[in-house]
């Protein structure tokens, strides 16, 4: 057992060294894409932008992207914007990059799943370690970044919640259990309000179950944080502590 642990540490150390030397390098055009189309990045202070770019480069070194359906290719813009969404959601955790989810499949539009026998805009499959996205739906979520509907954030939120529970990837248990319990108490009340039809902040999808509520909550947390804080102050503050970041205070202005 000790030998296995030593070998694991040596292997991880060698990988980190290789990654530091040979990692993906963002081009000027790709940074311009971030600045133009990704408000979370463009509004960060310079010091945080530097960290964001470095973490994105490391993530793009590790993730594999695959075109599916009639999508001809995965463009650099697609990689950068999808990768940036993962960094956005995990930015409060310096060592979390959703290692379990090594593959990202991208369809041009909604797609038919042979597993659920239904059409999807996106999904997360922990058994296969994949995140699946419809590019048109993903892009639509980015185009309107203040409506609280963002497919990328939604699916990454599902992956984040699962990653916290998968204990063989070196990234589990990063949610503080005390804060998570506090979040769950507030979330259950919000889900009941949504199902009662009395909530005018979260969309109905959030009332389906605890998994969907977490994803919908994170969409709103990142897309309209000021309104979230005003309308749901307790829940907003708990998510700040849980995710270890506050989108409002991270802004440069």
Walkthrough of the structure:
By secondary structure, the chain is an alpha/beta fold. It folds into two domains: 11-144, Orthogonal Bundle (Cyclin A, domain 1); 175-253, Collagenase (Catalytic Domain), CATH 3.40.390. The chain has helices spanning 2-22, 28-37, 39-42, 46-62, 76-90, 135-143, 151-163, 177-196, 210-223, 225-231, 233-243, 247-250; strands at residues 64-67, 103-107, 111-113, 118-120, 122-125, 130-134. Helix 2 (28-37) packs across helix 5 (76-90), helix 8 runs antiparallel to helix 11 (233-243) and helix 10 packs across helix 11. The protein has twelve helices and six strands. The mean pLDDT is 91. The longest helix is centred in the N-terminal third of the chain and has 21 residues, at 2-22. The chain is 57% helix and 9% strand. The radius of gyration is 18 Å and the shape is globular. It has a four-stranded mixed β-sheet with strand order 1-2-6-5. Strands 3-4 form a two-stranded antiparallel sheet. A hairpin with a 4-residue loop joins strand 5 (122-125) and strand 6 (130-134).
């Amino acid at each position: 057992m000790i030998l296995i642990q030593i070998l694991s540490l040596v292997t991880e150390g060698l990988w980190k060294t290789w990654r530091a030397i040979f990692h993906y390098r963002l081009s000027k055009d790709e940074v311009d894409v971030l600045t133009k189309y990704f408000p979370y990045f463009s509004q960060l202070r310079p010091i945080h932008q530097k960290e964001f770019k470095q973490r994105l480069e490391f993530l793009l070194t590790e993730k594999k992207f695959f075109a599916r359906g009639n999508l001809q290719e995965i463009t650099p813009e697609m990689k950068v914007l999808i990768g940036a969404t993962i960094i956005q959601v995990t930015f409060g955790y310096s060592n979390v990059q959703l290692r379990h989810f090594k593959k990202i499949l991208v369809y041009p539009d909604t797609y038919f799943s042979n597993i659920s026998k239904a059409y999807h805009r996106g999904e997360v499959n922990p058994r296969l370690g994949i995140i699946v996205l419809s590019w048109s739906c993903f892009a639509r979520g980015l185009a309107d970044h203040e409506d609280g509907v963002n497919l990328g954030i939604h699916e990454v939120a599902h992956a984040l919640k699962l990653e916290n529970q998968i204990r063989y990837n070196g990234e589990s248990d990063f949610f503080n259990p005390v804060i998570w319990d506090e979040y769950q108490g507030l979330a259950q009340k919000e889900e009941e309000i949504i199902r009662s039809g009395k909530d005018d902040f979260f969309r109905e999808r959030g009332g389906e179950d605890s998994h969907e509520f977490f994803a919908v909550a994170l969409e709103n947390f990142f897309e309209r944080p000021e309104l979230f804080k005003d309308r749901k102050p307790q829940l907003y503050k708990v998510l700040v502590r849980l995710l270890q970041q506050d989108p409002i205070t991270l802004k440069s202005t």
